[in-house]
Amino acid sequence: MKKSLPVILTVIFGIAVFLFIITFSIGLPIYCRFFYYMQIEPLGIPEATGHSVAQIKAAYNQVLDYLTLPNKEFGAGVFAFSKEGAAHFADCKGLFTLNTVALICSTLIMIAILVLNKLGVIKLCRPLGYSVAFFSATSIFAFFAILGIIVATDFNSAFVTFHHLFFPGKDNWTFDPRVDQIISALPQQFFMNCAILIGASIILISLGIIIFQIVLKKKRAIKKD
């Protein structure tokens, strides 16, 4: 068990890095509410809804409070909503909670393993002279670069496919703006911009790790020489 422990912890660390990059990036448009605020007027949301910027912000904050905080009842400010619409947001809340839990757990695991490695309690494996984080970042970079091209080619199809995958057997995500008015304040362009932010974050973080690991490996090679 002692001999296999470094391998096991290296694999766990790699998985934690993988999850951190994805969940951190997904969390950006969720927790950075100003990302929505800055789009309210450019996307013409006041004109589309007939409500002021202040009312739209208040409604968005109420929805996000429900999605991200415990023990909150669903509400959408001045916007009316149906039972089916509220049920979809309840489904979303489960995914948001899962992302938050995964982000916290992956962060704590990474920190704990890095501290143990730094103190010499364990020694992480370095396959091919790279940290396992290099391989996690490389796999994510490749996957999301391809996914980004697919989504950019046909966002509408990708949007529908996403909902079929994460909300199987349900159609309450197809809002009727006459009944669930909040959807008028959440145009598809906003979701596209969220996807762009998430994709850009994933690619930039992954690329940063890859470059850092390559430079670090070269420095170690020079020191050996």
Explained architecture:
This protein is an all-alpha fold. It is 71% helix and 0% strand. It has one domain (5-220). It is built from eight helices and no strands.
Features:
single chain, elongated
Short description:
The protein is mainly alpha-helical and 225 residues long. It contains eight helices and no strands.
* Poorly predicted regions: none
SSE string, helices as H and strands as E: HHHHHHHH
Rg, Cα atoms, Å? 21 Å
Question: Gap between N and C termini, in Å?
Answer: 35 Å
Instruction: Indicate the multimeric state.
Output: single chain
How confident overall, as mean pLDDT?
Answer: 89
Shape: elongated
The beta-strand count equals 0
Give the total of domains.
Answer: 1
> Helices and strands: which structural class?
mainly alpha
Count of DSSP H/I helices: 8
Q: Please give the share of residues in helix.
A: over 70%
For the sheet with most strands, the description reads: none
Share of residues in strands: under 5%
Chart the SSEs and their pairings:
Layout: H1 5-31, H2 34-37, H3 45-49, H4 53-68, H5 83-118, H6 132-153, H7 155-166, H8 188-224
